[in-house]
Amino acid sequence: xxEVFHQSLEDVQGRLVxxxxxxxxxxxxxxxxxxxxxxxxxEEVIEADAVIDDKAGELDELAIEILARQQPVARDxxxxxxxxxxxxxxxxxxxxxxxxxxxxxxxxxERAIPKGLKSTFLKMGELDVEAARKLAELLRTQDGDLxxxxxxxxxxxxxxxxxxxxxxxxxSWQGEASATVDATLASRYHERFGDHAVSVAKKVxxxxxxxxxxxxxxxxxxxxxx
Amino acid sequence: xxEVFHQSLEDVQGRLVxxxxxxxxxxxxxxxxxxxxxxxxxEEVIEADAVIDDKAGELDELAIEILARQQPVARDxxxxxxxxxxxxxxxxxxxxxxxxxxxxxxxxxERAIPKGLKSTFLKMGELDVEAARKLAELLRTQDGDLxxxxxxxxxxxxxxxxxxxxxxxxxSWQGEASATVDATLASRYHERFGDHAVSVAKKVxxxxxxxxxxxxxxxxxxxxxx
Lengths: 226, 226
What we know:
Chain A is mainly alpha-helical. The first copy, chain A, contains 7 helices and no strands.
């Protein structure tokens, strides 16, 4: 039974890695599309989100099947419940990539990336991709050093998120209302993407350390500065 | 065992109702604070969010304990997994109420509610409160008619969300960048609140009908129009 359970967990882990990799591709394409107003790339992201949703749904079904057939208890049970939550966060990260792609499509042929914030959003995009890529690696290797690296990327995202609002609310901001709206939404999406990456990473920490705390489990919501 | 399970489910249900009622109070206060720039009311919401988080955490622990001790299978198992997801959505609704309160506090003593959009945001606030109140009632009574009413409130919220962007992007919009930022974030929060209410309501539908579909379970993300 123990052997069966461990095989099942490996299956779960493999699927989490697969979804995280799909999310990495999605956020990479979405942020490149946003930066270059590439509407066809944006549309690829929008279409591919259904695949992420399906994979997350299949993972949920597998987790429920493990609960039903193998009846895990104690730490094993918490691992399976964690997998359900990681699946939900990864699915949400895919949605956020889709939202960034939608912003790009909506503004086309105009640029979605607001003037004066190009380098900021390029950097936010890079940090999102980095966080997603490291999350996939963390899920594959359970190398705990990656957790801090993902946190660092999220901290940098939070700082850039604040800087976007400082810029938009400064006297020097010349953007039209549409640029202000785009900057607000896009910055919020990037910031939330990082939050979800940290939320998943903390659950992986639990899997490797066995230390379960309320903080491990709670969806960590970085205070919205703006 | 069956009897014990049903008692446990009643406990779960009672806690879901309690959290939904706390969320109703939070969104009611948050939207009133936003409408009247009442910073002390906003602070009440911000402080009280920890209670919602704690209650959601306790409910999660109870659900995990039920899984461990009673080892439910089939539909019973799905009910418990659904409760975990409803708990996460309710907790997130509390966070959104807190975010609206934070917007109010940040702008104080200025008004957070953007000029020209007062009636729109008052209406969005009313719809959020209505959705939350009906959700609490739905969780208590499992009266399926309420599900459609919550959907209708969410549809109305989506329409108002689109109208906010139409207004902000129109030639007549005179708001400064800060008003544009506030309108964008506040509208997004209201819209997401409605999405989560529908997501929980659909899971209650499952509890009463026993019909489990991918759609019942997926976090329904209304396409972001802007």
